[in-house]
Every structure is written in structure tokens, then in C-alpha cells.
Design a protein that fits this description.
Elements: E1 5-6, H1 13-28, E2 33-40, E3 45-52, E4 56-61, H2 72-77, E5 81-86, E6 96-97, H3 104-118, E7 124-129, H4 131-142, E8 147-153, H5 166-170, H6 177-182, H7 189-192, H8 203-208, H9 211-220, H10 226-235, H11 243-246, E9 253-258, H12 266-275, E10 279-284, H13 296-303
Parallel strand pairs: 4-5, 4-7, 7-8, 8-9, 9-10
Antiparallel strand pairs: 1-6, 2-3, 3-5
Helix pairs in contact: 1-9, 3-4
Length: 304
């Protein structure tokens, strides 16, 4: 199958406004991010990694299409750690790709392993959200020396009986998925944050979030490579990780789940952790699929 490389032009007005929105969001939380690009040689794709803070290394693997910016409030609370936030291909100003062109498990592990190798990271703590947690579980199984511990935020992708809301599931089904995908793209910046309600977050939580976060959601989803990257990721659905596979994850693994996460119930979260040889489970009361949005301090304390 043909591999497709989707580059971004730094002089593209869309890229400029997306980068500016991210800078404003990071400034709001007092984050100073250093930018790196890691080449995936087989695909010829550059992956953007943000380095934040100093201290003991900690790797952050975002969910969804791979944007790191939604984790800004959490990263601000992870004091004393040198954070490497890996913007997965298609997200966070990394180059885009057609995920249908790869074996998704091999690609996921190789992507993360290449980033770890670039920074000389071995036996480090990993914090991952949603699909990023699914990828990180594979990394923990296939490259166990890389991962010292794993914290999973929100339902960790296609694991056991977790499932996305119906509209997101429709995106994985051609030929109408492009039409359904457009329903997820906010028509204006004021509506960008409201999409979080679909993930179990309350109006009260959404009203407290900075406007710069909404700007990021608005502009990043309009980047020229975003649609093909996001839709192909949903089409090439990550194979389910079942309880037998979870037994292979020997590292200390924690799941932090919002009680309003509509991707997975608290009962499902408990079952996931029960299958892990060294798992712990915590809930954030009233939180949605991005549990740190309700309480970044509590999530950070559990991680640290």
C-alpha cells in the first residue's frame, strides 16, 4: 500500500496561528517548551517532541490524533520532571500520515521507540492518555526496558470493553466517515471547547478552561494534514488489547479514570487494572475522558 507523507509549511498561515495558539496556552500555564523533531526513517515522517522542565525524565504520550497541548495544565503540575511530550504523527505539528499504510502496532512501537532512542531514554516513567495509552501498553510489552512505570489517563484506547462514543465510532466506517468527521470540527472558536462535553466533561469544567485551549482545538483541527491523519487512525483501529495481553505488562501501571468518562465505565476500569500484574486504580470524581481537566493537581500528585 502506498505510503503518504503529509508535510507542514512553517509559513502556512494555518500553521502560524496554530503555533501561536499553543504558545499562548503554554504561557498561560507558565510552560517553556523546547521544540525537537525526530525522524521516522522508514516513513520519512518528522515527529515533533516538546521538552519541558528539568529533572528526572518523564515521557508524555497524548491521546486522540496525538496533540500534546490538551495536557498543558497537567504538565504544569509535574514539577521537578524533565518532560518529553511526543506529538504522535498527525498531531501537535508533527507531520501527518495515512495510518492505513502501516501495521499499526509495529508503527506505534517503532514511533515511540525511535523517540526514546533519540533522547537516550531508557527505563523511564511514561504518562499516556487514551489512544496514547494503548500505544504505550504495546511499548511496555514489546520494549519493556524502555518503560519503568506507566500511568494511563482516561480509558486507554481499545482495551477490553472500553469504547468511544457513537459519533467517534462512525468515523471509523467508510464511506461516510468524512461527513461525520466534519461534525466534530467546531465552526467557530467559541464552540471549540464545547466539544469536550461529548467526552463527559461538564459545562462548569468547560467554562473554567482558558480561551487559548479552545483556540488550539480550533486551529490544530484545521491543519491540512489533520483530517487524513485522524480518519485513517480511526479506520485502522488499534487491535483490542485483552486481559491475557495485559498480563504481559509487568511494569507498575496505574489507571486514572474520570467517573464521567463515557469511553469506559468505572467497572471497566477496575477490570482493566485487575488484569494487570502490578496495577493500581484511581478515579477523579466528576471528571470526563481527560480527567486532569477537572483536577490537574490531583492527577499530578498520583503520578509523582
Amino acid at each position: 500500500m502506498k505510503k503518504e507523507r503529509l508535510t507542514l509549511d512553517d509559513n502556512d498561515p494555518g500553521v502560524i496561528v496554530a503555533r501561536r495558539a499553543e504558545q499562548e496556552l503554554f504561557a498561560f500555564y507558565g510552560l517553556d517548551a523546547k521544540e525537537h523533531y525526530v525522524l521516522l526513517s522508514e516513513q520519512g515522517i518528522k515527529v515533533r517532541v516538546l521538552e519541558i522542565g528539568s529533572g528526572e525524565p518523564l515521557v508524555v504520550v497524548p491521546g486522540n490524533t496525538g496533540d500534546a497541548f490538551p495536557l498543558a495544565s497537567l504538565m504544569a503540575e509535574l514539577k521537578g520532571r524533565r518532560i518529553f511530550a511526543i506529538n504522535r504523527p498527525g498531531g501537535g505539528l508533527s507531520e501527518g500520515m495515512d495510518h492505513n499504510s502501516v501495521d499499526i502496532r509495529s508503527f506505534a512501537v517503532k514511533t515511540l521507540d525511535t523517540a526514546f532512542e533519540f533522547f537516550g531514554l531508557e527505563n523511564v516513567d511514561v504518562v499516556a492518555h487514551s489512544m496514547g495509552a494503548h500505544w504505550s501498553l504495546w511499548l511496555a510489552m514489546d520494549r519493556p526496558k524502555r518503560v519503568r512505570s506507566l500511568t494511563m489517563l482516561g480509558n486507554p484506547g481499545n482495551v477490553m470493553k472500553g469504547n468511544a462514543p457513537w459519533l467517534l465510532r462512525l468515523i471509523s466506517r467508510a464511506p461516510l466517515n468524512k461527513l461525520f468527521f466534519r461534525l466534530l470540527i467546531p465552526s467557530d472558536k467559541n464552540k471549540a471547547l464545547r466539544s469536550l462535553k461529548m467526552m463527559g466533561h461538564s459545562s462548569e469544567t468547560v467554562s473554567r478552561l482558558p480561551h487559548a485551549l479552545g483556540d488550539c482545538f480550533f486551529y490544530f483541527r484545521r491543519l491540512p494534514h489533520y483530517q487524513i491523519s485522524a480518519i485513517s487512525l480511526m479506520e485502522n483501529t488499534a487491535p483490542k488489547i485483552d486481559d491475557q495481553q495485559l498480563k504481559l505488562v509487568l511494569q507498575p501501571t496505574m489507571l486514572i479514570l474520570g467517573t464521567k468518562d463515557n469511553f469506559a465505565s468505572v467497572e471497566t476500569g477496575k477490570n482493566i487494572v485487575a488484569a494487570l500484574p502490578n496495577g493500581t486504580f484511581h478515579t477523579i470524581k466528576g471528571a470526563g475522558h481527560l480527567p486532569w481537566l477537572e483536577n490537574p493537581g490531583a492527577c499530578a500528585r498520583l503520578i509523582l
